[in-house]
Amino acid sequence: MKKILLLMAVLSVVAISAEVKEGVGRGYKGDIKLSVEVEGDKIVDIKVLESKETPRIGGKALPKLIEQAIAKQTVEVDTVAGASNTSRGFREALANALGK
């Protein structure tokens, strides 16, 4: 019983410390809306909530941008070749979500 209570307490602290923020940036074909999960100053997860980017170019760039942002822990991700407007919109949305 004590172990269960301890586990519940730890899980509630983890759940409380995680925060989800949203941001919007202008991509090639329209707005890119992101959901960014942070714990303190650490970017934990990023999800694309809305995007009108072309599936073959901007759509393929978004997962690469997400991977970079989480790995580098920064808004300053590299532009994906051929998807400069998508990359710029992603950076703008991420910065807006993080209040930068």
List keywords for this structure.
single chain, 100 residues, alpha+beta, Sufe protein. Chain: A, 3-stranded antiparallel β-sheet, 3 helices, 28% strand, globular
Description of the molecule:
- The protein has 100 residues and is α+β, with helices and mostly antiparallel strands.
- The protein is built from 3 helices and 3 strands, in the order αβββαα.
- The longest helix has 16 residues, at 2-17.
- The protein starts with a helix and ends with a helix.
- Keywords: Ubiquinone.
Concise overview:
By secondary structure, the protein is α+β, with helices and mostly antiparallel strands. 46% of the residues lie in helices and 28% in strands.
List the helices and strands and how they pair.
Blueprint: H1 2-17, E1 18-26, E2 31-39, E3 42-51, H2 58-72, H3 84-98
Antiparallel strand pairs: 1-2, 2-3
CATH fold-level name = Sufe protein. Chain: A
Task: Strand order, main sheet: write it out.
Answer: 1-2-3
Number of strands: 3
CATH class: Alpha Beta
Low-pLDDT regions: none
Mean pLDDT: 90
CATH architecture: Alpha-Beta Complex
Helical content (DSSP H or I, runs of 4+): 40-55%
Query: Count of helical segments?
Result: 3
Q: How much strand?
A: 25-35%
- Give the topology string: H per helix, E per strand: HEEEHH
Terminus-to-terminus distance: 44 Å
Shape: globular
> Which structural class matches the secondary elements?
alpha+beta
Number of domains: 1
GO molecular function: FMN binding
InterPro entries: FMN-bd
Keywords: Ubiquinone
Pfam family, one: FMN_bind
